[in-house]
Amino acid sequence: MKNKTNIEKVKEINKKRRKPVKRKTNEIRINLLKEANLHPAYLISIKGDKGTIIGLTHAEITQGNKNIALKDNPNPKDKKKAYLKPPIKDVPMAKLSQKPYKGWKMSRENKKIAKKLKKE
């Protein structure tokens, strides 16, 4: 019986030590930050209560910075050219919409572009 209780104690201690798990996503959500002006954002990953995002836009240049062109528009109903708007930011999940856009997805090629930006 003693061994069993010790094992249970160790498991409880290990649970407390765990860091928030980082999980990858493929979601487009509305960015609720004031500077984003309710633009959609690509949610790259979630860790704890923070999300890693990069903005999406139709503009080739935003505030004097050149945006990165995407191969496909994440919105299947929109035929206009779409761009990623750097920099990549870590924001509280409360500053993003609760639900992702339905039907919006990043293609494999677009995900690779976002990954390259994240490494830089």
Question: Can you characterise this structure?
Answer:
The strands form two sheets. Strands 1-2-3-7-6 form a five-stranded antiparallel β-sheet, covered by helices on one side. The chain is 23% helix and 34% strand. The protein is elongated and about 65 Å long. A hairpin with a 2-residue loop joins β4 and β5 (65-66). It has one domain (20-119): SH3 type barrels (Roll), CATH 2.30.30. It is α+β, with helices and mostly antiparallel strands and 120 residues long. The mean pLDDT is 85. It has two helices and seven strands; from the N terminus they run αβββββββα.
Number of strands: 7
Main beta-sheet annotation = 5 strands, antiparallel
Q: Which CATH class applies here?
A: Mainly Beta
Rounded mean pLDDT is: 85
| Whole-angstrom Rg | 19 Å
The sequence of SSEs as H and E is HEEEEEEEH
Total number of helices: 2
In percent terms, what proportion of residues is strand?
25-35%
**Spatial sequence of strands, sheet with the most strands:** 1-2-3-7-6
What is the straight-line distance between the termini?
A: 54 Å
Regions with little confidence, pLDDT below 50 for 5+ residues: none
Shape: elongated
Helix/strand-derived class?
alpha+beta
Helix proportion: 10-25%
Assembly form of the protein: single chain
Topology:
Blueprint: H1 2-17, E1 22-30, E2 40-47, E3 50-57, E4 61-62, E5 65-66, E6 68-69, E7 83-92, H2 108-119
Antiparallel strand pairs: 1-2, 2-3, 3-7, 4-5, 6-7
Question: Could you name the key traits of this structure?
Answer:
120 residues; alpha+beta; SH3 type barrels; five-stranded antiparallel β-sheet; 2 helices; 23% helix
